Structure formats: C-alpha cells, structure tokens
Amino acid sequence: MFAACRGYFLAAGLFALSINLLYLAGPLYMLQVYDRVVSSGSVTTLVMLTIALVIAFFALAGLDVVRARVLTRASVRLDAMLAGRVVSATVNSSSAGAARSQPLRDFDTFRQFITGSGIHALLDLPWAPLYIGVIFLLHPALGLFALVSSVLLVLMAMLNEWIVREPLAASNAAATRNYSFTEMGLRNADAVRAMGMIDGLLARWNRDRYHVMGMQVSASDRAATMSSIIKFLRMAMQSLILGLGAYLVIERLTSPGSMFAASILLGRALQPVEQTVGQWRGLVSARNAWTRVRELLITNPPPERATALPTPNGELLVENLLYIPPGSSKPILRQIGFRLEAGESLGIIGPSGAGKSTLARHLVGVLRPTSGAVRLDGADIG
Description:
alpha+beta; ABC transporter transmembrane region fold
C-alpha cells in the first residue's frame, strides 16, 4: 500500500529539504546586513540582498503549497486504494459489539493526519541537524550550545510521550466503547422507547461519557504542561544563545551578524520539535488508528477471485433442509423441501421466529444447512 504512495512521500520529503534550505535565506540575509552592509554603507548591496531574500521566501511559500498538495493527493490515493478494502473487511469481520463504522473512522483519522500540520512537522524534523551544522560554522561554541539545546528538547519530547501515553490510550479505548454503546442504542431505538429504557440508557451513557472526559482531561493537562515547558525552553534557549553570541562578540571571537543569525537558526531547528509535541495527541491517535486498521486488514484478507459462472436458469430445489444454530440443540428448520421451476413463485407465511428469514438466508447461500441441500440449476449453493 505505502509502496504505491512512495512517490508522493518521497516528493514531499524532497520539498521539505528544499523548504528548509530556503529557510536559511533569513539568517544569511541578517548575517550579510550586519557584517557587510552596515559596515560598508552600500545601499546597492542592501537592495540586491533584499531582492534575493524576497525571491527565496516566495519560492519557499510556493514549495510549501506544492508539498501540501502532494500530501493531499497521497491521501486521496490511499482512500481510493483502501477505503473499499476497509469496508469489505469490516463486513467480513466476526467482531461483535464494536461500532461497525469504527474501522472506517480509524482509516479517515489516519488519512486526514497525513494532510495536516502534524505531518509537516515530522517532515521538517529530520532537517534540524542542518541548522545546527550551520551554527557550528558560525562558531563552535554557538554550535555546541545549539546541539545541547536540541538534545534537551528531544528528551523532553520523549518524556512527553511517556507521561501522556497511558491516559491517552485509556481515553481512546473508553471513547471507542462509548461510541459502540451509543450505536447499539440507536440501532435498537424502537425497543428502547417501547420498554422505557431511555433513562437507564442515558444513565449508563453519561457514566461512560464522564469517564471518557476524565481520561481526556488528564491526558490534555499533561500534554499542555509539557508543551508549555518545551515552549519555555525553546524561547529561553533562543534568547540565551543571543547572550552567548554577545559575549563572543565582546571578546571579538565572532561578528554581530553571527550572533543574530545563530538565534534565528536555533529557533528554526527547535520549531519542529515543539510543533511535534503540540500535535502529539493527533499523532498518537493516527498511529493507533492505523494499527487497528492494519490488524483488521491482516485478519480479514481479501477473498480469492471467484470463478465466473454462466447466468442461471433459475431452477431452485430444496431437499430435506435441516438447520440447527451453533450452540443450540433445537432446529429452526426441519425437513424443508420444495421445487421451483424458472419463473415460478412461492409465498411463505408464518409467525415471528418461525424461520422465514433463516430459510431465505439458506436460499441465497448465506447460511450452510446442518443437513440437506439447496440447489440452483442442480448446483449445491449451501
């Protein structure tokens, strides 16, 4: 599946590389303005540098739009390839009690994630070392500070995953159970009203709902706390590198332009980490959703291609049909037999539970008889 979309993701990765290279235009512009234009007083150089900066940012914005469109096309292709398979696997799934539409919702959750801002942060994250490398070129001390800052933020992101994982997983599981219970109640709405079960159903629904909300609040509070800490660290590090750069300028070990350029580069290097943590809940939800969809597709592989048969004549024969449901000893159908030629009709009447629907399911091959046979044009369809 991903092999068929590999071209889209490779293109998005190449666009991410180009976008991050173009982001260097801002720091380089500041470096040249402080170190060359201000000292030389050359207006011509300033104008040419500004024109080059605008062109670079225009190209960056265009590539960002193209990358978003490529990922959107990848999402559409995934939907065309897998949506039908997910629905088919859901129909064939033997799971009972779960919301039957949950697999399709899981698939849409994953599909929508690859078109959102979270995937952009993940695509930009591998290029953070590029900015740290440029900072090392400005001055080794600045580069070392940037490297330590990046490692610290990555460790904080890993800590965020550890403290949010348990309540978030519990919240998602509880929400799935609550949706399943809701769908079950809505499917049997007539029986619920007739039996006066609305108050009891709402009581249980509210209890489950409050449990879901409690888990979500716990996960959101922890995620918000970690996001705020990481934001504080990023802003502090971006400012502290200015202080370190100022010290190096005072000691005449680097230029003022390098000081400001290092601050901008560090902010850009740490931005994807902060964005990833901010989108962590969506990332985990998409990962868990895809895991469930993948397990469904593995346990319910597509059926083998059926052999094409000629158009039937319509001669139906039922011989001594006996059907005993699994786990029961009482037959629903007992010694049923009749014959219908093509074009003939037969009316079947009886009270509720007499076996009319069960017989119809045997006639179309949905159920297999305990004994006897159902033949269409002489071929056994049971």
